[in-house]
Amino acid sequence: MLVLSRSERSPFFLLAGVGTSFLLAGLSLWLSTSATLQGTGIGALTLAMLLGLLAGNLTSERIHDLLGAGLQFCKQPVLRFGVALYGLRLTVQQVQALGVQAFVIDALLILSTMRLAIWLGTRVLRLERETAILIGAGHAICGAAAILASAGVVKGRNDQVAIAIACVVLFGTLGMLLYPWLFTLMPTLFGDSHGFGVFAGATLHEVAQVVAAGQAMDPQAAEAAIVAKLIRVLLLAPFLLGLGFWLARRSEPGRAVVPVRVPLFVIGFVVCMLCNSWLPLPQGLHQAMVGLDDLLLAAAMGALGFSTRLADLRKAGLKPLILAFALTAQLVIVGGALSFI
Q1: Which residue from 213, 164, 198, 207 is spatially nearest to 336, judged by alpha carbons?
Q2: Does residue 308 contact residue 53 with C-beta atoms inside 8 Å?
Q3: Is the pTM higher than 0.85?
């Protein structure tokens, strides 16, 4: 990497990196509302990463060095603030209305998916532990948002995060297209539309994918799918805490164990959810805050994509895809069995 002069480390270049990230974010948000992409399940976060990948791989190493500080700022403080604001999308009342069945299904799927991801990824496929955890988190909880949040806990590299997101996009999109077809063929496969909706919300990856799949089914199935998905989003905070404790307990022998501290963005996530439940904002302000959150998360994704080289992704080979396929199959089989029960 080139050594930057003092002038090149000035606030101007910091702002240039931040501005590039937010430009990618704004473009992705605009494209996600276009008639062409609506209903495809490809959300603004995925678009931001793809646009960032495209721009970053067409840009010289010199430009990467100049924008590096601003990109890093978006991948850390901006991302954490965005994850905290994500709690404004949930309320305690929604959780109470979901029922025990959906909560139990989601919790069991998260635990089983993460266990399989770590065992299969590290023991069988010999992937790096961080890569296996990130792929597992994306499948188990809420796609790209969960991967980004988990990356801060496991200290994942840019290429590891990008690989995990690519796996979620690929297999989540396939599921989004397959589920409505299954629902049309076998609408009572899981007892009724509500049961099928719970199954869809508990096993599809991205929120946008769940919404798109739900819109292709009947209203009862769509509502159940979205609500079941919201539980998985809610479980992001306790999952991150549990992941931090697990990593601390498995630290290498002879190495001092770093005390586990609750990340501030996790506390912020919970506080935002509680405020949204008991101190609701005016509708206009709430929509503005959710829109700001979309922008912040998309900026973090744009910065991540811009910083990632395709050569780094090619080095991973087929192993991440094999793991992602196994996790998707496990979600369908175990999720289907739990939904049927």
Answers
A1: 198
A2: yes
A3: no
